[in-house]
């Protein structure tokens, strides 16, 4: 049901490499991700070119490399150096070996850019373009945001873990900023230690259900990134040896992000009615008509999640988003 990647789409993405991964107060550059998703949903050349121009009007330039041979994780000024660093590595080792070597060190910082680091990398790998993969790895690396060592608690369910965290931070007021600012603030708070432990057992299906239903209960902007971030991680799992650790790092980051969302209501196990019938062709067209890159990426992520896990919650998330799309 997905359309093939196009030469025009790839040219636009490569053209976008003159821009940095962020702009303004650390807003993420969605352009390469949006163009990739648009191609898969069947966008026309005119639609992709319009998206490029819309984004190009406000993006910031990439900037010059500082000449650092070994860039430092989490050092935002090293982004251009990371691009060069990974481009050389990818040329020598290829994509698969590079990812197998690099991802274990990046997973503890999966919060980077409010999940945009992992999302951009997943899309870049789908493109099979070394230049875009190097830029995606650089974004995750320079925006690396660790939330502390993993710790575990027996007999704690993911739902109870999330709800305890949401209850503790339900009325907390964060300083002015964007998602990643609030997450970085959260981990400095003394009461964050009370939610630092997580369930010792997680499943892909269980995490997916929570992420999807929390979003569909709220249309919350932060929780939307939980959906697209989870799908991105899922697509990268073939390159990760310790997939259990990867899931736990994602869960750590998701709970932290959820504690900063506008919607901080408890998750419920109450099931959704299974009455949504997939209509991907129509949904893809609807999402493209919104010209909203978040909507386009969400619908694409939900389609990919449904392919992998066949969860009705993914269909509900699509229907919910499109019904509320402006």
Description:
It is a single chain. With 326 residues, the protein is mostly helical. It contains 14 helices and four strands. β1 and β2 (27-28) form a beta hairpin. α2 crosses α13 (293-309), α10 runs antiparallel to α11 (243-258) and α12 runs antiparallel to α13. The longest helix has 28 residues, at 79-106. The two termini are 25 Å apart. The model has no long low-confidence stretch (mean pLDDT 96).
Oligomer status? single chain
List the secondary-structure elements in sequence, H or E: HEEHHHHHEHHEHHHHHH
Percent strand equals under 5%
**Helix/strand/pairing category:** mainly alpha
SSE layout and pairings?
Elements (H helix, E strand, L loop, with lengths): L6 H9 L6 E2 L3 E2 L2 H11 L3 H12 L22 H28 L9 H12 L2 H13 L8 E3 L4 H11 L10 H8 L10 E3 L4 H13 L4 H16 L6 H16 L21 H11 L2 H17 L2 H13 L2
Parallel strand pairs: 3-4
Antiparallel strand pairs: 1-2
Helix pairs in contact: 1-2, 2-3, 2-5, 2-13, 4-6, 5-6, 5-10, 9-10, 9-14, 10-11, 10-13, 12-13, 13-14
Keywords:
326 residues, mainly alpha, 4 strands, 58% helix, globular
Please provide a brief summary of the model.
The chain has 326 residues and is mostly helical. The protein is 58% helix and 3% strand. Helix 9 runs parallel beside helix 14 and helix 10 packs antiparallel against helix 11.
């Amino acid at each position: 049901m997905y359309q093939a990647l196009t030469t025009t789409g790839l040219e636009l993405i490569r053209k976008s490499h003159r821009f940095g991964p962020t702009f303004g107060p650390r807003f993420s550059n969605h352009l390469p991700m949006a163009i990739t998703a648009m191609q898969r949903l069947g966008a026309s050349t005119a639609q992709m070119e319009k998206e490029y121009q819309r984004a190009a009007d406000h993006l910031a330039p990439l900037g010059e490399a500082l000449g650092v041979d070994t860039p430092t994780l989490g050092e935002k000024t090293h982004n251009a150096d990371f691009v060069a660093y990974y481009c050389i590595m990818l040329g020598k080792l290829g994509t698969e070996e590079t990812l197998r070597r690099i991802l274990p060190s990046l997973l503890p910082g999966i919060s980077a850019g409010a999940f945009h680091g992992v999302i951009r990398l997943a899309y870049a790998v789908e493109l099979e373009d070394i230049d875009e993969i190097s830029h995606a790895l650089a974004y995750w690396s320079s925006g690396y945001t660790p939330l502390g060592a993993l710790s575990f608690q027996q007999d704690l369910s993911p739902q109870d873990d999330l709800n305890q965290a949401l209850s503790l931070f339900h009325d907390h007021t964060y300083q002015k900023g964007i998602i990643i600012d609030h997450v970085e603030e959260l981990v400095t708070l003394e009461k964050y230690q009370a939610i630092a432990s997580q369930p010792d057992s997680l499943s892909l299906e269980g995490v997916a259900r929570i992420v999807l239903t929390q979003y569909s209960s709220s249309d919350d902007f932060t929780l939307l990134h939980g959906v697209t971030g989870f799908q991105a991680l899922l697509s990268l799992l073939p390159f990760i040896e310790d997939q259990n650790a990867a899931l736990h790092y994602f869960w750590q980051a998701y709970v932290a992000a959820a504690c900063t969302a506008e919607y901080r209501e408890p998750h419920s196990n109450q099931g959704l009615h299974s009455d949504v019938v997939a209509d991907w062709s129509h949904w893809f067209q609807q999402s493209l008509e919104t010209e909203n890159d978040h909507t386009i990426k969400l619908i694409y992520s939900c389609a990919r999640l449904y392919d992998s896990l066949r969860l009705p919650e993914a269909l509900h998330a699509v229907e919910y988003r499109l019904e509320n799309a402006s």
